[in-house]
Structure formats: structure tokens, C-alpha cells
Amino acid sequence: MPTALIAAAMCLVAVVIAVLAAHTLLDEGDAAHRARDLVAMGLAGAGMALSIMAIVLLIRSHRRARVGEREAEEINARLRLLADTLPGLVSYLDTEVRYRFMNSRYRDWFDIDPDDFLGRTPEEVAGPAAGALFRGWVTTALTGEPVSTENVAPFERGPPRPVRCYLVPDRDGNGRVRGVVSLTIDVTREHETMRALEEARDQAVEASRAKSRFLAAASHDLRQPLYALTLFASALERRLKQADAADLVRNIQQAARSMQSMFNSLLDISKLDAGVTMPRVTTFPAAEVLRKLEAEFRGRAEARGLAFRFVPSAVPVRSDPELLESILRNLLSNAVKFTASGRVLLGCRRAGTRLRIEVHDSGPGIPPEQMPRLFQEFAQGQTQKLSGETGLGLGLAIVQRLARLLGHEVAARSMPGRGATFTVAVPMAAPVDARPADAAPAGPDPAGAVDLAGRHVLVVEDEPEVRAALARLLGDWGMRVSEAGDADGAAAALSKGTPPDLVLADYNLGSGPNGLDVVRRIERQVGRRVPALVVTGATGPETLVTLKASGIPWATKPLEPATLKARIGAAMYRAAAE
């Protein structure tokens, strides 16, 4: 019970006692007069004592109340100081949506004295538009639901500004909402910072995309002279009889191959950086990719005096055939490039639910201290010096990034002086039979199964120097060559002679129909399928998807003569097998 209430009760009891005492004194009768006097005096004394005690309690209660008021004032002062230091508007609104408290920030925002606007509505403080917006938030909070929102407030006093507002219902002891505490923060600077960051991000993304678009657009034009150089150097080598001249031509070819390797690596890494390389995982026989690589690298290995062994597999796997081919091409290219003598092997083994595709070489091996950074960009080991070809050290970095993109595991092991082995573990799509994958029959070699001598080939190429180089090279292989620069020229050449045994067409033929269109026109003209190989210097994603979907064999420029010959043989072998 509160002290003041106790004191009041004691005063009331004292009054009652005093009345009883007076009544006793006024009673008649002499016999008990003395006894009555004693009783009355006792009652009066008790009442006096109770009155004194009540007064003391009242005084103490008053003092405590004053102390409580001072403490409350101090607490309120601290709360106001805290509210004034917050970086935003702090207010308290009652159930009638009227301000009962406003911190000093209202003066900074609206140039008003907060004390003059207590009891006012949001519309009177911030203006009709902003006030109505704020009233809606307060009304929601008064239902007992906390509010956190962000909007552009069209203030009447001052410019519109983006604000973030937090509103929390204030409840009494019974849980009833009796008001709303509000904090409103100006987020203009935050928005400006976010816009600046977004602009910087967009600029960086656009710069990366622009670089990728430039490389993709320029790749065709940049590859053409390199392609012609490779073909001319090969033709020149066969015509020169002097040993020193032949060595000079081989040096030219080696330089061209190095340029080709570096250029392809730059294009591959730029596409990965730009995020335009997206895997298209399908189920396909591993042999579909491995046969193409065998046809491409057997000739290159044998040209360097290396034995090339191929252990195929017909196991179906889950991967992107183009990206898997790119991974293995980089590994095989390194194996051929860095092996001075001995052999290179491409083979497969089963390992649980995965097919391990392995590339072995008998090269100098990799020193142990180089193994930890083997897959880093621009990492070139000492083995680089054993070959005349140069590179940027991007091949294994591309292998690692493509493997991560596909979810494949790549591993390497090596002993110095005893070669190296690189393994790509690819998920198998279905159980295979009990025969080990490395025991599968090798089958015929598509590159060597077709004799090109005497075969008629139609070359469709819009670059005159490349067309001339191709015609010379194919003629050296014993083929009869017809030439055309575009679709109309191809139709004219076809009408003058017998249908070709092969159409070798560039994909980009200026502003007219592309190489795929030319092949299809020729097939319609002769009324049957025609063996074809489409080559391209454009490596943009759209072009590659179009070529893949066409069903027509295709290859990326520049091609070494041995690789071109293998691709031509494979295309003709495929057409004969269909």
C-alpha cells in the first residue's frame, strides 16, 4: 500500500479516536467520572500519536515524491539527449496520431521548434503529402504491428528525400497500444553510395563484356592472316629442298603455332572471365570426343617423331562435349609440345561412378616444387624451355576453371625424368559392362581411313590469301580443288563441274549467307548429303551454338595442316559411314 494512503488511514483513525474521547468526556455521571477521564485521555493520546505518525509518513512520502520527480526528470533529460544524438527524427505519437514528443532533429529538417508542434498532426509538421504517407505507417503500427519501410517522402518544408522509417507500438501494462515510437532516417547518402557502387559494377561488367565482344568480333579477322601464314609455311616447306631453308620454314611454322596457342588461350580465358562460357551438360559416348582428339593429335605427335597411343571407351558420360574437348585438347597440346621423344597416350579407365580420362606423356616431368602452382594462371614450368614453342601459361588454368565449371575433378602426378599424367574424372551416365574400358577395341582411324588423292574439294572462302593457301595445300595432298568466295560463287562452280566429294567452307562469308547456308544450298542443288567441314575464326557463344546444332562437322581456325587433314578425313569417313 502506498505511504500516502497509509498516512491518510492513520489520520482517519486518529479523528475517530478523538471523537470517541470527546464523547466520553461529555457523558454524565459522577461515579465513573474519573474512569471516563482516564479513558478519554488515553483515547486522545492515541489519536495524537497516530496523527503525528501520519504527518511523518506524509512528509516522507512528499520527500520521496520529489526525489522520484527529480530522478524522472533526469531520466527524461538523458532520453532526450539520446534522442537528439540519433541521426534521424525520433518522435512519439498517441492514438490520435498527434505528436507527444519530438527530438531536436525536427528543427534541422523542417526549421521548426519541436516544442511548438507538440499536439500537432503529421500533416501539420511535414505537409499534406508526406504527412499522409507517415500517417498510414503510424496507423498500421497502432494496430500492434511493427513497421519498417522505405520511401521517398515529398516534404513540404525542404526537398523530397528518401527515408527509412521504423515504427514500434508502445503498450501499457495490459498490452493495449497507447502510442507509437518512430525513428525516421534520411538515406539519401546511402542511396547515392549504392548508385555509385552499382554504376561502378555495371561499368566493370560492361568493360569485361566489351573486351569479350571485341575479342569475339576481332577473332575472325585476326585468325585469317595467321591461318594463311600457317598454310603457306606448310606449302613452302614441301617445295624447298635445301636443308637450311626447310629449317627456316619450320621455325616460321613453330612461331605461327605459338601465336595460335597464345591467341586461343587469351580468347578462352576472356570468355571465362566474362561469364559467357556456360556448360550444356548432356549424355554422350566418351568416344564421340576422344575420336576427334585422336584424329587431331595423332598427326601432330607423329610429326614430332612421337608415338601416339589411343585407348578409347564407348562408355556414356555426363558432361558438356565441347568444354570437355577443350580440357583434353589443352592437356594433349601440352603433352605433345613438351615431350621431346617417346610417346603420348590418351586413354580411359573406370573408377567407381566416374570415367577417368587420362593423358600420359614420356616428357621430362614436373619438378615437385612446381606442383602446388601448376594450375595457376601464367605459371610456366621449366619444361617450357624444352620446346621451341612458347605460350602464356594459361592452358592448365583454363583446364582447372573449365573442370570446376563442369564439376569434374582434375589431377596431375609426375616424376621428374619419367613424364607426367593428367586425369579428368567425368561422371558416367549409366552402368557399363564388365569389360575394362582400357580393353575396348581401338577401331578404325577416321583420319587415315580415307584416301584424299584424286578427291574433288570445293573451297568456299572470302579471304583471297586464305583461299589461295588452302588451294595450294589441298593440291599438294593430291586433291582436285574448286574455289569460290561466297554462296553465289559456290553455286557457279558447282554448275561447271561434278559435285564435290567435300565442301570446305568458312563460316563467315562477309554479309551474305554463311558457310552452313552454303553447304545446305549445295545439298539441295545436288539432291543428297555432301561431306562438309565448316571452319570459323569467330568464337562467340552464338556462333558456337549454331555450329553445334547444325550437325555439320566444324573446326576453329587456325588449323595446322596435319589437323586440317585429319578433320577432312574424319568428315569424309563420317559421311561414308552414314
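[next item in queue]
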Amino acid sequence: MSNFIKNTLLMMLCGPAILLSCHAQKQPKNSETYDFGADWRFHAGEGKDSSWNTKDYQHKHWANVVSNKPLKEQGKMLEQGFGWYRKLLVFPANMQQKIAEAEGVEIDLGKFAACEEVYVNGQLIGKTGEFPHNFAGYFDHERRYFVPLEVLDLTGDNVIAIKFFDGWSANAGFLNAAVMKVLPASTVDKLKLKVNVQDDDYIFLGKDSIAIAPTIENKGKKQLKASLKISLMTDAYRPIKSQELQVDIPAHATTSLGTYGLKNAEPGFYRYKVSVEIEGGQKLEEQFNVGYEPEKIVSPNNEATDFAEFWKVNKTQLANIQPDYQLMLIPEQSKLDYEMYHVSMRSLDNELIMGYYAKPKKAGKHPVIVEYMGYGSKPYFPNQSWDGFAYFVLSIRGQALNEKSNHFGTWFTYGIDNKDTYYYRGAFMDVLRALDFVSSRPELDGERIAVRGSSQGGALSVVAASLDSRVKALAIGIPFLADFQDYFKIAPWPKSDVDYYMAQHPQVSWKQVYLTLSYFDIKNLASRIHVPLVMGIGVQDNVCPPHINFAAYNQVKSEKSWMAFPLHGHSTGNTFHLAGLELFRRVLHVEQPK
């Protein structure tokens, strides 16, 4: 996997993020299970063009690991975010007849991260998420996969192989001391519920009503009767509509369950829950989000009367701090098309901040892309293969390269009761100091600066373009820090951090908190953007939900466009990364290297 893809994945992530996922959920059931133990074979790497998924591949030279202990604790690391598990399965005699009667087995992996493909005897039997280049993660729910009888060798050897990816290379694979279990398939295991949203990106526009068309596939030999339940609510969990009806599910067939929708929807985002329940209480369930006319979402600017003056004063204070730029070459990272430097500098309140600078080895005045990082992201190096741009990746105060000297506690809540002490006051000035740094470099063209980032990095890119005219274009993914009063109704975090802070500081009122946050709400800054931008959203994002993304986007008056990734949670696909580069090339007049 190339460095720019790896770095893009890391840039897109928000540290404590847990993705909202779309997957079937089944009620617990009583059945004989077989525990095949925690022992596995492990190999790092993608295994591209390999036979690691086949039954006949010999994995004796692979490392021995256990699933009930994190890989990191076993001294195992992934390679470019990828790894594989393999395991031999032999069914005991007392299970073989039960499996035959059940027409297959359910494999229960327990909790697993972050996205994977599961093979049995060389056949793909299921997957969660998407690998790069169209990465979709992070999912960490329980994994259950149905394996039909024809795939299995009841009396012989069976091999399960799992290819998985985790860009953090930390919490990969099995989670929470999981031990795989195998059990004869139940009736519900042989059903597959699929909900077809009647718009490719799940965002409905114009006169179209919101509409879905669920289908159910029955791989079993029994015809079933079931109850179909469909509920629709706003993204803030206000009920809109619910329906229930009885349906017949033929054996060995895929059946359409009809079309359901909502006409005259108000602009915004909605949560669907679709479930099919059969006799005995077993059910399948899908939960997912859709949107309607998001550019018409109304979330008025609520800046205080001294908003502009507040930021003017802070910019003046920053200008009075001598940056004292210090660059240190990193030889081992300077072997390709860039010289890589560790950079340190002083920002507001004389805070020491750091970053990585990729200086082109080519002569000339180069355009530069400044990248801002996600909340809690770990340090990463910029692009190292020549693409026409120089790069600077900033670590704002207390985070990433600066985390060892962090004295800001939980960043989001530090000083949240007062705008003059709030964490993001200094962090926003760090954003501008990064622009000061690249503008100081003689090999860079200060008239050709673009900024980008996702999650917190997306918000910081809005800050840069709003407060500094040196920025000429920006690409923002799943932007954070917007529309807080609505945000806290929709998503559990960061409100959970604020709730904890309030419990520890009972003298602080919500009025104070919301007043402070209004100075740092990017929707109150976005109207000051005068350059082109592109935004990417994950429609299933419950960390920085699409509603807050558009609350800021809709305030922008300059050239703008957005793209939605329907099945992504707190991430965007590679096409967003490419769209950002295309915008930067057009605006900064940069040709694609041949």
C-alpha cells in the first residue's frame, strides 16, 4: 500500500471514534456450540496475489497466536495495516449430523476490528467494511457468518482464513478476549436481510421522496412467516413513522418485501430501522441513515457580537510570538522524492508545537498542502512520492507529536467555561502558525497554499481558510466542531466528555459552555471562506454526523461541492482524497507529474 494512501487513512480518523455500522443483528439463541479454542496462526501483510485464503495452503511457518489476547501484547505487528489469521477446523462426530440437518453452521468470531474478509475452504463467506483503496471502517461489533453445508467438509479438514485491516495497527483482529465459536445454523442464520435505498449515495434531492425497498434471501429449505417492522426517526431520534406487516418468506428464494418511504420530508438526516422477526423471536435488523436536501438544512449563525474582535485580538497576540522555527532532518525518511524534517515552533502563549515537513528535492518554488490531523491521531509522515506538492503535517498543541508534553487534559473540555482559556483558542492559532511556517520557506510559493484534513482536521482546515487569506483552497472530510447544540442531541461523543466535566464542575452552566463553544463553532467561521472547497461525508457517521457537516458547509458562500459515501461511518473513500487533489491542482495551477 502506498504511503499517501496509508497517511490519508490516518488523517481521516478521529481517535476515540466508534463507527455506526449497518449490519444484521440477531437475538441470542440456545443451541449446541463448539469452542475451537483461542489458538490461531498469524501472518502480517496483505497477502496480495497469494494463496493464503485457500484450503491447501500450508501455514505451518506462520506465528502461533491466541485470539483472547491483543496482537500487540503478543509482540505481533501488522504490515501496512494488514494481517491474516488461519485455523484448522475438524468437526467432532457428535456435531456432524446436527450440522447436516441445519444445512450449515454459524461462525461467531466475537468482537472484531476493523474490517475483514472471511474465507472457509477457500470460499469467501462474508466481509465487513472495505479495504483500501476504498477504505470503510472502523467497525468493532460482533461478527457472525453463515457457512452453507456445501462449503464444508463434515468428516474432514476445514480451514478458516481471515484477512483483516486496521490502519492504527493497534487494536486489530479479535477484541475483548474473543474466542471463536461454531454452532449448527439456526433458521435465522439462513436469512439475509438487505435494504435497498432508492438513491445511490443515500442522499435524496429535488422532488424525490425518501424510499427504501427491503428484500430477504432465504437459503433454508423451510418457508417462513415473519413480521416486518420499519421505523423512521430524525437523526435526533424523534419518531417520524413506523409500519408493521406480516410477510411470507419462500424457501430457497430472494423475496421483495415492498417499497416504503416518506414524502414531503424536511431537509435533514434520518435514521431507519428495518427488522424481520420470525417465530421464536429470532430476528434480523438493519439500521442506517439517509439524507434529504442537506444543503437546505437551516442552522443559523449564532456568533457573539465580539466574535470578529475576539479572533482579531488572538491573531495579533500570535503575531507577537517569535516562532523560532527549528528543523531537524530525518535521513531514514528522506530516501525518496522529499527531504523529511521534524519541525518545531512557538505558537500562542509561547506553546511549543511540532510537525513533519516534506521538502521537495526538486528545484523551484513549490505549492504546498498543509494537513491538519484528526482528534487523537498518532503522528504520521507526509507523502513521500513526488506528486507536485510540498507537504506539512501539523500536530496542534497537546496532540500527536506534542502529546508527551500535553498539559491540556481532555482537550475538548479543557477550559470550556471561558473562551479565553478554552483549549481550541490556542489550537486554532496553531493552525495559523503552520501557515506562517510554510510561508517562511524560500522553496515554497506562499501564493499557492492549500489545506486539508478530516474530522478535527476538517474543522481546522475551515479555521485556516476562514481566518487567513493565504489559503487558496481546502478539502474537508467529515468535519468536527460544528453546531454544538444540535450535535449533542445526535451523537454520544463529545457530549459525554462535557457531561463528565459538568459533573466535576457543578458551578459551570450549560449557558456558559454553549457561549464558549459558539466562538469555536466552525459554522460561525465558514461564511468567511472566500476560496473553493470540497467536502466529503460518511452518511453513517455518528461521530461527526452529516447534520453538523452541512451546518458549516451551508454557511460557505464561495465555490463548493460535496460528495457522500453511503456506507461509510467516520471516514470517506479514496475518491474524496483524489477530488481534493484535483481541486488543488486546478486552483494552484499544478500539473499532474508524468
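[queue empty]
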